[in-house]
Amino acid sequence: MALLVAALLIVLRWHADPAVVWLADRDGAQWITYPVPPQMVARTNATDIVTYRAQFHADPLPAAAQLTFKAFGTASVFVNRQLVFIDPNPPERWKDSREVDVASHLQRGDNTIRVTVTNRHGPAILRGAIPALDVHSGAAWETSLDGRNWVPARLSTQIEAWPISRQFPSAFAEWVITLPMLLPVFMIAYVLVRSGQTEGRFARIPPFELSPATLRSLLVIAVLVLGFNNLFKLGLNYGFDWGYHFEYIHFILDQGRLPLANEGVQAFQPPLFYSLAALLHGALSLFFEHDTVDRAIRLLPIFSGAAQIEIAYRLSKIVFPQRTQLQSIATVCAALLPMNLYMSQMITNESLFALIGALCLYQSVRVLCQEGPLRRKEVLILGALLGLAFLTKASALLLIFPVTAALVVRAMRAERPLRSAASSLAGVAAIALAISGWFYLRNRLYLGQFFIGGWDPLIGFEWWHQPGYRTIHQYSQFGRALFYPIYSMLPSFWDGLYATLWLDGHLGGVASYEGAPPWNYPMMLAGAWWGLVPTFALAAGYVAIGRNVLLSSLNSLVFDSPHRAALILCAFACLIFYLAVLAHTLVLPSYNSCKASYALATTVCLACLIAAGLDWAARTAKLRAGLYALLACWGAASYAAYFVI
Fold first, then answer.
1. How far apart are CA 94 and CA 69, in angstroms?
2. Are 334 and 327 in contact (CB under 8 A)?
3. Contact assessment for residue 400 and residue 578, using Cβ atoms and an 8 Å cutoff
4. Which domains, from first to last, does the chain contain?
5. Distance of CA 530 to the CA centre of its chain
6. What is the per-residue pLDDT across 322-348, written as a single tens digit (0 to 9) for each?
7. Cis link prior to 60 (omega < 30° from 0)?
8. Is 461 helix (H, G, I), strand (E, B) or coil?
9. Is the pTM of this model over 0.85?
10. pLDDT tens digit string along 68-117?
11. Which residue of 52, 67, 553, 643 is 20 to 30 Å from 401, comparing CA positions?
12. In terms of DSSP bridges, do strands 22-23 and 470-471 run parallel, antiparallel, or are they unpaired?
């Protein structure tokens, strides 16, 4: 019921909130736009002025001809070169329907209607109709930037992919080419999983035993080796907004203080990562040259990414007690998740936030599964982690949901549930506020609001990216990422999510083919198809959890099956973060808002869900061995893709 209410509130916001640029065709009228070539650069402080026109025949003349239209921006209407309407509404009321009777301005025979739309916050787009004359906006309309040169209008649903995506080979072709290289991996993994069986051809093979703890150590070493190998092989221009992150770090070094949100493009970010980077930079500057020190800042995300492996291992021991195979699978998935591998090579606060967020989720699971009243130490640790997360990224707001769920379920086992829940929540909140509250209070005192985003006008940098709006088509299509995944997020939300989860579909924010990072592209692109294996496992994991929830009572989950409840909490955390990514793409309708890396903190939970899904799907020994071998191929391709030669 709560989910249905939340969904209803979201839908109501889509329709009412002017910040959500949601376009829906209606009654035969389609949203149309000027066919601007695909652009990957941000439009900054620029005003779009576009004129649309339609020519139609009126004979006989109607007594009334109501033009009903909506425009993203402000609009002026001309009929047969006569101005008949000037938009009285401010731009933020663009969702209001405008109506004007144009009958008195029509002439018998051919007529022309023109609508000029002006917008400085996105593309100037239009939807309109004169039902009495059977005139509806669509592909038959024309559009112009100067009022002299006219071209056919483009439907808002016809979003072109960027040419850069076709400069790379087909992902399917690369998958086929790399299959022979990964065939030995499949065969070895299959034999090792089947080894030691009591019957059949694999009975004579000694069982292969590698403890999850040993595997964890080997994977940590492997990921650190990859990071140190790439440390000086990747240019400093790799990473989303890398230059602005450097500006933040050097502002602290030069000014000796933290910047306000309006003192830099990325200055709205909480300061923990940048302060640590400045300390590291200052210490290393005593011994190394400037360029070396700048590159060495990557040590922070590299170690943060490797630490995710340790957290995943410890979390899997709680979620899968006595199931060493599943513990190993979860550890492997966290270590070799492409998103974790490529994000840990960037100078950004994402990896540090992911580390602290993962620790917060791990501690929440521990709190959930332990018995007895909540101890002060548990409250202190959880509050401190939540506070540090808020000092790293404002996305820590999402951690409140799984943390609250864990504390409430733990309180249900106490003698006084309501009192226990209230005191534990208050204690965690007080500690978190004591650690991070000063930063958000500072925002409020100097800039007037607690939370400030990179798209907020308060930072003094107004911008928008294509497409600048959202339609149902962007959320109902998938498939491009399986063939041309690079920058596939423009026409499809799901393609963008998939292409940034299972490979570096954003090229680390690099917008040119020539400047693309030096990844092993055959293996990276093949990852689009290998990613189907963990995707299937992830879906199976949710199916298994849903089945268990339906078959279990609340009392059973709370009191008898804390480990099953832990897996549910992992699933809940992933759902919250990825729903937040979806909501973010609605509020900020730009191509770069569709990134799975915004949910990087849930890597450890994602890994446990994949392990649970494989366990549920593998009904026979042969199927289990086959699925595990396919997962091994996925992991090998992931590691090879981001190890720069």
1. 10
2. no
3. no
4. 29-158 (2.60.120.260), 165-641 (no CATH)
5. 20
6. 899 999 999 999 999 999 999 999 999
7. yes
8. coil
9. yes
10. 999 999 999 999 999 999 988 788 889 989 999 999 999 999 999 999 99
11. 553
12. parallel
